[in-house]
Amino acid sequence: MDMNYRYKNNKILLEPSDSFDIEHTLECGQCFRFNRLSEKEYVIVAFSKMLHITQSEMGVEFHPCTPVEFEGIWVPYFDLERNYSVIKDALSIDPVMRRAIGFAGGIRILKQEPWECLLSFIISQNMNIPRIKKLIGSLSERYGSYIDGFHAFPSLDQMRPVDEAGLIDCRTGFRAKYLFDAICKVAAGELILSDMAVMPTQQLRTALKSIYGVGDKVADCVSLFSFGRHEVFPMDIWIKRAMRQLYFDGRDMKPKDVFEFAKEKFGEHAGVAQQYLFYYMKEGYTKEHYEQIGGLL
Fold first, then answer.
1. Rounded CA gap, 220 and 149, in Å?
2. Which CATH code fits 7-87?
3. Domain locations in the chain as residue ranges
4. CATH class as words, domain 114-225
5. What are φ and ψ of residue 21, in 5° steps?
6. Using an 8 Å Cβ cutoff, are 81 and 75 in contact?
7. Strand bridging mode 41-46 / 49-56
8. Is the Cβ–Cβ distance between 108 and 80 less than 8 Å?
9. Run of H or E including 49
10. Cα gap 112→222, rounded to integer Å
């Protein structure tokens, strides 16, 4: 993506692109610290910054934002240097993916701060997105720093003194013991997130799964949404439903068989394909619509 943008009055205006839609990107289940103000208008909290972002026919406006912040924080966060048109062309060979991309082709894979992403997806287990957002907000309000009207996600140093009882008090339930184990392992240096960034993907997944309560789904989400491993294919209830209905004639498949299928069909873009399928199944797919377009199976 060519990053043509203008700066004026502490605002960045990025030119329009059919491969960047702020609603598609934020509402597809990959992040949780955002609030929708109106159509195509959001407030995001990431990397201890609050960003107001609005999309219109003029482009995408970021504020408050300087060119240094835009290029140093938000370009990597929104993966703006990657050419998603090439990815979409490669995936669109498959007719199912062509429909999913047609529904939400503005999705980009966020590159989130690893510490926040790890704890957030541990919290996310067996929980809907509004509840996840509320719990992460509560954790931030209790332990994070207050900066210019918002609470940043708590740092490792701020979480070091926290015990399991404190996490339970934040209404994290059974996840408290998983969060506590993650905090302890990172605080003790058993897991060094900066080192994990350069690990081969399978080694990274194994390291993440050494945390009590972290299985394939959470490990794959963190690998994809923080460490940029686009070849992984996180599996949740929506993806299981999508794969069953769109690829397997309604048949239930073993997770390992779905993983192998996704690896073979989508290759290095499996994680991007997963997000298109997730959003399509959750927001756009109905049996009636599927039949109206003539079916794809």
1. 33
2. 3.30.310.260
3. 7-87, 114-225
4. mainly alpha
5. -125, 120
6. yes
7. antiparallel
8. yes
9. strand 49-56
10. 9
pLDDT value, residue 288: 43
Say which residue the tokens 């299981």 belong to. 240
The string of pLDDT tens digits covering residues 9-53 is: 999 999 999 999 999 999 999 999 999 999 999 999 999 999 999
Domain 7-87 matches domain 114-225 at the CATH topology level: no
Verify whether residue 282 is a known catalytic residue.
no
Q: Which tokens go with 58?
A: 């003029």
Residue whose token pair is 């719990």: 135
Catalytic option among 49, 209, 217, 240: 217
Please tell me the distance from the alpha carbon of residue 123 to that of residue 174, in angstroms, as a whole number: 9
Residue 2 reports pLDDT greater than 50: yes
**Do 172 and 127 touch, CB atoms closer than 8 A?**
no
How far, in Å, are 5, 12, 177, 198 from residue 230 at the CA level?
27, 28, 29, 14
Give the H or E element holding residue 111: none
User: d(Cα 222, Cα 217) in Å, to the nearest integer?
Assistant: 9
Structure tokens at 121: 């997806």
Structure tokens at 225: 């949404």
